[in-house]
Design a protein that fits this description.
Helix content is 29%, strand content 23%. It is built from 3 helices and 6 strands, in the order E-H-E-H-E-E-E-E-H. A 4-stranded mixed beta sheet has the order 2-1-3-4, with helices on one face. A hairpin with a 2-residue loop joins strand 5 and strand 6.
Length: 104
Amino acid sequence: MDITLLYFDDCPNWKIADQRLATIAADDADVSVRHHRVETLEEAERLGFHGSPSILVDGVDAFAEPGAGVGISCRVYRTPDGLAGAPTLEQLRAALGVAPKGKR
């Protein structure tokens, strides 16, 4: 499974998402995570970048919401605990279809 983490440097939330994705990748050899820094508005528009962090699964934004804007901004996710700057580990596992280690 090919995971791409899209981000821009000034958003601190991508590092949280990166740590959570690293945890999943460490538990599952089929998961590989690439990083792509978005540097310009033109690039954001070309990629359909809905904000940092964005997680693409085999090229598709796993958390895209209808009508979400495109641009260089920090993204907000709906989590069980309210709005947050990154999906929870459990949300990421569900989006990737990956069970926690020991539950496979």
